[in-house]
Amino acid sequence: MANIEVRNPERDIHRLRIRLGVAWVIVLVCFGILGARFFYLQVVRYPDFHAQAEDNRIALVPVPPRRGLIYDRNGVLLADNVPDYTLEISPRRVADVERTIDDLAQILEVTAFDRRRFKRLLAEARNQDSVPIRTRLSDEELARFAAMRYRFPGVEIRARLFRTYPMGETAAHVIGYIGRISVDDKRRLEESERLSEYAGSTHMGKIGVEASYERQLHGRAGFEEIEVSAGGRTVRSLSHTPPVAGANLILSLDIRLQQLAEEWFGDRRGALVAIEPRTGDVIAMVSKPVFDPNLFVDGIDVATWQALNEDPDNPLLNRPLRGTYPPGSTYKPFMALAALTTGARTPEFTISDPGYFLLGNHRFRDSRPSGHGTVNLHKSIVVSSDTYYYKLAYEMGVDAIHDFMAPWGFGQLTGIDLEHEATGILPSSQWKLKRYKKKWHPGETPSVGIGQGYNAFTILQLAHATATLANDGVVMRPHVVRSIEDPVSRERNLTVRAPSRSIGLSPEHLALVRSAMVEVNRVGTGRIAFRGAEYVAAGKTGTSQVIGIRQGERYDARRIAERHRDHSLFMAFAPAEAPRLALAIIVENGGFGAQAAAPIARKVFDYYLLGKLPGDPPGAATSAASAAATGAKPGAAAAQPEGENEQDLRDVPERIGPEPISPTEVNRQ
């Protein structure tokens, strides 16, 4: 009979209980492990994970706008944006910045200048996410860093737009440059409640039209909503509000003429402003010497900055805008208009010019010691009679002269669309009392009449007044930006549409003065420079004395230090019957007006009106440019035109101001 196993219920229950107990122990151990893990993650590691969670969030990143471009009147690009790469460090994500820079220097070139700039920008960029340590990386440098990128958390390669000026030094004072936003810039932006407009931007205009049209050029920032990882890298873009590009500027400059005019100055210091009388467009605005604006975009190095600042020729000075000079005899056409308008002189009135003007026991010299004989108003301009204008100024008085000249823009801001324009000095009795706490003496007035004395104007003011004279007294505000172009629609809006005002002048008086200015370039002091011209130009030479000559001595440029020689000035417009261009020019220490300034003016007119590049007129005095071409030493006294008497071309007396003479001489004269 087969064995039959009988189940033992108690034993089975016991085994089941053991199994259940083991299972419960295992479950409890597992839950214990999970609980311990939860405790570790939620309590022990809470600060770390909380920080990472905070970093791994949605960020609103500003997107800087593309800066507007700058063109000349003919469409030549003058200021561009070029894409390039920078290497930037995020200080908040780097434990040891100095060590990181040292490590970067092992694979990339990091100069002492790069380090100094980084420290300066780091101190200024309090709220900036990253600071550049290197700019304009080459392809080879990009590849080297990309291969080692894992070693540098918090260091990123970023694509940036860099401002560049393709024409280099040409028109640098007009175009200006941009530079990094400084602490002072931020303070000004905060005060004007515009700081938010510069979110993400690192640069802004510093001088020139880059500064004066900063609002138009800058554009409006956009924003991108992104998700970033705990390591600071972008995970994905959630939304994007594109920036609005800045407007483009169309300058009134003819950049080719500007470039040529700068070349024609050679190594000489000076300024030139050429204006279209009918519109106020500034066609050329030369300041010599010049500088390269590209040096300032990334931050100029100390040595170059020091060299520019300590240069005795002062290349950073915008001479047409800020340099002030006595206008010399270029003032005489305006004095003639003042005489006719106020009734102080009639066209027929004449004086006898003996070569001097006596006032009490003082004598004012004429540029021609033997005098000009009988002189009327027309002849006074043609031969540049100082005696005529000494007498005229003394009889009119300084306040009457001031009141007539102020509407022409002398000693006033012209309103040009560039910042930091100098006012200059248009003297009056009230001005002297306010400045020197002294009364005006009648003996100070004669020198004012020949553009000397306290007179000090910018070349821009002289060019502006000349353009107004050429435009029959209709004043157009001078401007270097002709129009502003919308970057999307390409619609252009003119910056100046209508005249500012009109000076009430008699057509007969205007015709008389303008005809005399034509004779200046035909038979007068400007005849050499404009000999053989294919158009009729009206002009006036001028000379501004730098140092006085003692009584009894003669002016000899060869015996005078270069920086003590006279300044050469010239103002003109052409064609005389329908002026298309008016200009004023000064060549510092260039001699008398016909010697250096007038030949350059002739070249400007030839190019602008005829489209040709003339050589020096036959027999003309050697200008700075021709001196360089012939090997003459820069700054040397200009050569005297063959067969010409210097005294006929000089338009300034050898001594400015009165010289005392004895009572015996007074009675004799």
From TrEMBL:
Membrane association type: Single-pass membrane protein
Enzyme Commission no: 3.4.16.4
GO cellular component: plasma membrane
Major localization listed first in the record, in broad terms: membrane
Annotated signal peptide: none
The keyword Transcription belongs to this UniProt entry's keyword annotation: no
Localization per Swiss-Prot or TrEMBL: Cell inner membrane; Cell membrane; Membrane
Descriptive protein name: Peptidoglycan D,D-transpeptidase MrdA
Organism for this UniProt entry: Quisquiliibacterium transsilvanicum
